Each structure stands twice: as structure tokens, then as C-alpha cells.
Amino acid sequence: MYAVAMPRQYSMLMNASHIILPFFKSNSGVMNPTSVSSLNPLSSIWCVIENIFLAATAEGLACSMRIPVEKEGENVAKILGAPENYLLPCYIGLGYTSEDNIEVEQVKYNAEEKMHYGKW
Question: Is residue 77 within 8 Å of 87, Cβ to Cβ?
């Protein structure tokens, strides 16, 4: 699955009509948390990202996302001139789906069959 997903994430970003780079101002505890509250900036930006996806979908747009790996986010921040304490959690591709887009069929299931009581 990983071998299929990673190239597709790159191609969806490369072909997106718009790219959103949602930087957020981090505090000193985001990457080395000492308490749950030190993660507030990180959890807040992921709420923002979710809302971007929901709003775009409501407008008939499609979204893709890729999370930077290793020093990639830092390098992008440096190239764009972002302040030192700002982090890039992901790239968001935004646009309309292509004409030859393949729609993935959702698997239908009965919720009662998936529920387990008193066991894993």
C-alpha cells in the first residue's frame, strides 16, 4: 500500500491547481512535549487542516495531503522565509478532480456486525 500511496501523493500535489502550506507558530514544547497543553498549537493546526478539507469538499473541490519527512518541512520553511519558530505540518493540494478520475467504491457493512461487546 505504501509503495502505491507515496507516488500518488506526489503526483496529486504536482497536478493540483493550488497548494496550501499551513504553517503554524510552534512553542518550545511542540516537538518535545512536557504536558498535553504544550501540544495545543499542533492540535489546533490539524483542526484547521480538517476544516479546510471539509470546506473544500462542500464546495465540490478535491483535496490531497502529504506530510513532509525528515528535514523537508524545515527546508521549505527556510526557502519561503518563514520565521524560525513556524512549522509546516503538511502540504495540501486543492482543485477539481480530473475527468478520468477513478472513484473508489465504498465498502458497505452492517454496523451491528462490527460491534463487539466485552471483547476485542
Answer: yes
30 or 118, greater pLDDT: 118
| Domains in the chain: ranges and CATH | 2-114 (3.40.109.10)
CA–CA gap between residue 87 and residue 74 (Å, rounded): 7
Listed in order, strand segments (DSSP E) in 1-120 are 18-20, 24-25, 62-66, 86-87, 91-95
pTM of the model: 0.77
Given a contact cutoff of 8 angstroms between Cβ atoms, the answer to whether 62 and 53 are in contact is no
50: pLDDT strictly greater than 90: yes
